[in-house]
Amino acid sequence: MAADEVLLLEAAETGRAALRFYGWAEPTLSLGYFQPAASRLDSPRLAGLPWVRRATGGAALVHHHEVTYALALPPGKPWQDGGEPWGCRFHHTIAAALARVGVVMRGVVCGEEKKLHPVLCFLHYTPGDLLAASAKVVGSAQRKHRGALLQHGGILLARSEHAPELAGLRELTGAALEAEEVGKLVAEQFAADTGWRLEPDVWTGDEEIRIASITADKYAATEWNEKR
Question: How much is the average pLDDT of 62-84?
Answer without folding.
Answer: 93
